[in-house]
Amino acid sequence: SFRKAQEGKKKVVLAGCVPQAQPRQEYLKGLSIIGVQQIDRVVEVVEETIKGHSVRLLGQKKDNGKRLGGARLDLPKIRKNPLIEIISINTGCLNACTYCKTKHARGDLASYPIEELVDRAKQSFQEGVCEIWLTSEDTGAYGRDIGTDLPTLLWKLVEVIPEGAMLRLGMTNPPYILEHLEEMAKILNHPRVYAFLHIPVQSASDSVLMDMKREYCVADFKQVVDFLKEKVLGITIATDIICGFPGETEEDFQETMKLVELYRFPSLFINQFYPRPGTPAAKMPQVPAAVKKQRTKDLSQLFHSYNPYDHKVGERQRVLVTEESFDSNYYVAHNPFYEQVLVPKDPLLMGKMVEVNIYEAGKHFMKGQPVSDARVHTASITRPLAKGEVSGLTEEFRRAPQNGTNWKAQPSAEIPVKTRLSSWMALQLPWQQGGGGLKIVSVSLALLAVLVMFYYGGMKTEL
After folding, report:
1. Looking at 6-15, 18-27, 38-47, 192-201, which range is the least confident one?
2. How far apart are CA 148 and CA 136, in angstroms?
3. pLDDT tens, 108-151?
4. Is residue 154 within 8 Å of 187, Cβ to Cβ?
5. Strand 32-34's sheet: what is its strand order?
6. Which of 88, 166, 155, 92 is nearest to 125 (CA)?
């Protein structure tokens, strides 16, 4: 735990939803904290913490009294995968789910302007990216606070996606996608958009959904799924389910089992309910732990009882190769439905779109062999950045000397700051330094992970 780190004289910075939502907890006393809207100021926080100061940046960013979406989209960063750009389109949400801690931390919906999002997408393609992921607490609610909507954004983004590159949409709750079904079906049928949508249902019981304050009923969820399955042939629908929410009866749970049996979701995220401190659901009468555990087990067994890809053996599919498998034996690609396809580990395939013959299928993947007569299409319009190379730097920044030159960081909406270029580089590229910066950042990230696991450690199975 971070207490052990402190006893070992380590410097600790905590970030994320939990410290943002409950900064006055006893265990956080004396620690530096950075809020969910202040990530662009992490350099300041780390530098002050190294000096022995306790810093807390938890404020909301505002412009003329209007809440902003979060950190600037054009800040320099290092992509985990140089081929994949992850863009947050908004922060916060419009719901008030009784089990959720994230809403408490991130607040109401705040969307980034379409122009900024399109510019970020353009820049990423100019840096060799071939796949964009849109993320959000609820992509379907995008734009409601700034007078626009998700389809308007998506059509603008589609215009700038190069041939061979792909766009993947993030999670959307049922209420805010219902009114856009026709347009969403057209977008999901676009050749440069994955026919994939993550729509959490959480429960198939209307009474449980009401207690969760999810603001939809099971019929709404079915309407979304049925419509998209009819209009977007082969679409992948992923969903989430919480087992053992307070008040869930055996009949409620069986309704959920029937829903999974009906749709046989190829991707299902099963969560055993865990009460987050300070949420309304934590104060409700709880389902016994043994019952929650058994329901989670039963649902997992049902999920593992069917194989969604067996019928696809023998198909010829177009796939985009973007990463290496966990066991390092294959490259990982995705077909137009964002289904995982493992291909031979041939460096010539990385970042390319290629046709393959499916020769094997597992529970979570297929295996494909590149077709001998197929053309390998280069999706990137330029050479991708090297792993660890900083994205978003201007030529002036790249040419700047690293021996103490002052560089004006993009200021936040609150306090303009200056930092030394050498210090910034020490944090952005810690492996190129003497090692001190790396230890602090690594320890901080590890401890953050421990804290998150501690609070959100209710059994979660990601399938």
Report:
1. 18-27
2. 16
3. 788 999 999 999 999 999 999 999 999 988 999 999 999 999 99
4. yes
5. 13-15, 32-34, 56-57
6. 166
Q: How far, in Å, CA of 257 to CA of 241, rounded?
A: 10
CA contacts within 13 A on the Cβ side of 151: 15
Range(s) for CATH 2.40.50.140 in the chain? 312-378
State the amino acid at position 158 in one-letter form.
Answer: V
The CATH number of the domain covering residues in 312-378 = 2.40.50.140
Beta bridge partners, 56, equal 33
Per-residue confidence (pLDDT) for residue 7, from 0 to 100: 67
Would the pTM count as exceeding 0.85?
no
Name every residue whose Cβ is closer than 8 Å to that of residue 439 and which is 6 or more positions away in sequence: 10
Q: DSSP letter for 236, please.
A: E
CB 279 within 8 A of CB 100: yes
Alpha-carbon separation of residue 429 from 38, 168, 432 (angstroms): 20, 28, 6
Listed residue (79, 86, 162) closest to 353, CA to CA: 162
User: Which residues of the chain does CATH 3.30.750.200 include?
Assistant: 207-216+233-306
- Give the C-alpha separation, 295 to 243, whole Å: 6
Tokens of 66: 């209007």
For residue 244 the two structure tokens come to 């053992």
The per-residue pLDDT for range 143-162, each reduced to its tens digit, is: 999 999 999 999 999 999 99
Alpha carbons within 13 angstroms on the beta-carbon side of residue 8 total 10
On whether the CB atoms of residues 313 and 359 are closer than 8 A, the answer is: yes
What is the CATH number that goes with domain 207-216+233-306?
Answer: 3.30.750.200
Short-list 408, 327, 389, CA closest to 362: 327
Going from the C-alpha of 383 to that of each of 56, 125, 193, 392, the distances in angstroms are: 40, 10, 22, 15
The pLDDT value recorded for residue 221 is: 97
CB under 8 Å to 203, separation ≥6 — which residues?
209, 212, 241, 242, 245, 248, 252, 255, 256
